[in-house]
Design goal:
The protein is an alpha+beta fold. It is built from ten helices and 20 strands. It has helices at about 30-50, 55-65, 80-85, 115-120, 140-150, 205-220, 240-250, 295-305, 415-430, 435-440, and strands at about 5, 75, 90-95, 100-105, 105-110, 130, 135, 155-160, 170-175, 175-180, 185-190, 195-200, 225-230, 255-260, 265-270, 285-290, 310-315, 320-325, 335-340, 360. Strands 1, 4, 5, 6, 7, 8 and 9 form a seven-stranded antiparallel β-sheet that branches. α6 (about 205-220) packs parallel to α7 and α7 (about 240-250) runs parallel beside α8.
């Protein structure tokens, strides 16, 4: 996403850190003329500006301005912030636990991370952060906002929030804490059905998923699971190789999971599933919403295209581009968009997102509360997708057939999960056994 999570990268990265070869330039005459113009302007400012200038700040500002003309995911990251970014995918850091983005020069909350100070304080997706402590966020870049929200654990940070329904901005006092992300959390439900929530794709998420599935089987008396709900709601992405590992676990060998294409168009890379550690053919549901982005969309797209899972929820974010992190000589970083990714069927989900098979709202009242939630299509300078983008506001609720409510699922307080479990329960009941139900997914 165009966002920086205060701690965890919210992007499908080609790698967690990448240092490519020295850049090569097409030194055309026009390029030299523009560089000379830049040098002259810099010289005038240095020699004639009314006050002494910070030359480093001028150069960094020029770089930021240059990158601001590109897509919203390409960013310059100052050295002090980049030092923290490099450890973000470790799964442990100290901050508030908020993933943020920019829209109309404002800092917007994409999603709070589960069990963090932000979630406990009641911060919600779509909240506009007006101020951080005593500093306005108007035109504040994401790196600066992230830096201000991070710091020593136990210290208070005051966020001024504007939200739809508020008559005026309100202040939220949050205490920084060490955020330890367990990227995979599982639960066993009645009848041998399981749900797995993937909060992000960080280092070893694929391995953690395998261990959690084994734990759930043990909790099920050693018997195979009858069906699985893979919950990718509000999962903003992370490491692309871990998204591939997650999809790989549910697909037989030799199937395309995701492909990427770079500047010149031809295929850059193609990731395929491997014939090992593949899960049984139990039926699956993938839950998604507008907060499901990037690496989450890779997984949902692969399982959907290969008919391995039914997708339930609301349309995803629609980020179909791949970024890499490049460390510069001075310790700063460049997060650069290097490719677009495509689902196995060759579809680009850029701007469109993954459209669920069944549109299910958050709550029983039938209101699609995420229809207005921020998506890729709302971001300045975003890449245009292929074909016409779907307007989430035009979608209608479409509950899946063969629903057989799973006993006790209504007590979960999660309507979409309740529907997903009821759908799986109905499938298994109608087919007579889980293996027969699962055979339809390949």
């Amino acid at each position: 996403m165009t966002s920086l999570r205060c701690g965890l990268l919210a992007f499908a990265l080609a790698s967690s850190a990448w240092a490519g070869p020295p850049p090569s330039f097409d030194h055309t005459e026009s390029t030299y003329r523009e560089l000379e113009l830049f040098a002259r302007v810099l010289s005038h400012v240095q020699n004639n500006y009314v006050d002494q200038v910070d030359e480093e700040a001028l150069i960094h500002g020029a770089i930021k301005g240059m990158l601001d003309t590109l897509d919203p995911h390409t960013q310059y990251i100052p050295p002090d912030v980049f030092k923290e970014v490099k450890i973000d995918t470790s799964g442990e850091f100290g901050d508030l636990g908020i993933e943020i983005t920019r829209k109309n020069e404002q800092v917007i909350v994409v999603a709070p991370i589960d069990d963090t100070p932000a979630q406990r304080a009641g911060i919600k997706s779509g909240d506009q952060i007006i101020r951080i402590d005593d500093e306005s966020t108007r035109s504040m870049d994401l790196a600066r906002a992230m830096q201000k929200m991070r710091g020593p654990a136990g210290k208070k940070v005051l966020l001024t929030i504007m939200r739809e329904g508020f008559n005026a901005p309100r202040e939220f006092a949050l205490i920084r804490d060490y955020v330890r992300i367990a990227s995979v959390e599982g639960a066993l439900h009645g009848g041998g059905f399981a749900s797995l929530r993937l909060k992000s794709f960080q280092a070893n998420t694929g391995t953690s998923l395998g261990k959690e599935l084994q734990r759930l089987r043990s909790a099920n008396g050693g018997k195979e699971l009858k069906g699985v709900v893979l919950d990718l709601r509000n999962n903003p992405g992370g490491l692309l190789d871990q998204a591939v590992a997650v999809a790989d676990r549910f697909l037989p060998g030799g199937l395309v999971i995701v492909s990427t294409r770079g500047r010149t168009g031809p295929l850059v890379s193609e990731e395929k599933s491997r014939a090992r550690n593949t899960e049984a053919k139990y039926p699956m549901v993938v839950l998604v919403n507008a907060g499901s982005a990037s690496a989450s969309e890779v997984v949902a797209g692969a399982l959907k295209d290969h008919h391995r899972a039914v997708i339930i929820g609301t349309p995803t974010f629609g980020k179909g581009s791949v970024q890499t992190l490049i460390e510069m000589e001075d310790g700063s970083g460049l997060k650069l968009t290097i490719a677009r990714y495509f689902t196995p069927s060759g579809r680009s989900i850029q701007e469109k997102g993954i459209l669920p098979d069944f549109i299910v709202p958050d709550t029983k009242d039938g209101q699609l509360t995420h229809a207005d939630q921020l998506r890729e299509r709302d971001l300045k300078h975003h890449f245009k997708g292929e074909g016409e983008a779907i307007d989430p506001k035009a979608l209608k609720v479409s509950l899946p057939p063969t629903l057989k409510p799973l006993e006790g699922s209504e007590k979960l307080g999660d309507y979409q999960l309740e529907i997903a479990l009821g759908y799986l329960n109905g499938l298994v009941a109608s087919e007579g056994k889980s293996s027969a139900a699962g055979s339809r997914y390949y």
